[in-house]
């Protein structure tokens, strides 16, 4: 990839090879982390009264792809159902869902993340917060969303999906609907979870019911609305 690569706050925090001076600074860094929580809670507190759904999906599903069209339609349907749409504020499926929400005058939120290559939050958000730390941002997704719709994606999408699943499985959050959208994309993963992971005893078969898999956006939205905590 061409462009200026910046060292991010996450990288500073996680790099254990740095000098003694850096190691000592890591302790002070906790204040910066704290301030990021404060900023996030303060900015997003206006969402406390709304029913919000987090939408995850690939940063690479650009305009013109079937996934972008699907994400935009999902954003529209969530807004029509009265839900605020919260995404990672990036391009691709995130932008599509934010844009769809705005198409229907719904509330559209972007929780952006600092990345080595500058990109900025997409142009379709009404409320945005930019985070330096992935883990702080993940807390915000969980705190302000009452359910998740997951479009096809890559590692980032998997990370967010499995974070949510783990929290539900371990009863850290209560009623928390999760819908995987796209049976062709998700089918192989779900088969593997059942035929390999559950079969090996690493999850229970009941854990497979913590999410639905569908191609029907109305079913996904209905699952969010009727099962929100
Ligand atoms: C073109 C490109 C790589 C841009 C990256 N820009 C991003 N901006 C905001 N959130 C992101 C970005 N990349 C990954 N994420 C996070 O990880 C998920 C997507 O990652 P992935 O594309 O599935 O793995 C999103 O739901 C988002 O929360």
CATH class: Alpha Beta
What ligands can be seen in this structure? Answer: N-(3-methylbut-2-en-1-yl)adenosine 5'-(dihydrogen phosphate)
Count, helices? 8
Biggest β-sheet strands, sense, barrel: 7 strands, parallel
SS-based structural class? alpha/beta
Tell the overall outline: globular
Can you give the helix content as a percent range?
A: 40-55%
**Domain unit count:** 1
Low-confidence stretches: none
Q: What is the name of the CATH topology?
A: Rossmann fold
Order of helices and strands: HHEHEHEEHEHEHEH
Q: In the CATH classification, which architecture applies?
A: 3-Layer(aba) Sandwich
Approximately what portion of the residues adopt beta-strand conformation?
Answer: 5-15%
Intertermini distance: 42 Å
Major sheet: arrangement of strands: 4-3-2-1-5-6-7
Please state the CA-atom Rg, rounded to the nearest Å: 18 Å
Return the average pLDDT rounded to an integer: 91
How many strand segments? 7
Describe the structure.
With 229 residues, the chain is an alpha/beta fold. It has a single domain (38-227), classed as Rossmann fold (3-Layer(aba) Sandwich), CATH 3.40.50. It is built from eight helices and seven strands, in the order H-H-E-H-E-H-E-E-H-E-H-E-H-E-H. The chain has a seven-stranded parallel beta sheet with strand order 4-3-2-1-5-6-7, with helices on both faces. The longest helix has 25 residues, at 20-44. It starts with 8 loop residues before the first helix and ends with a helix. The model has no long low-confidence stretch (mean pLDDT 91). Residues 56-60, 88-91, 94, 113, 115, 119, 153-157, 160 line the site of N-(3-methylbut-2-en-1-yl)adenosine 5'-(dihydrogen phosphate) (ZJS).
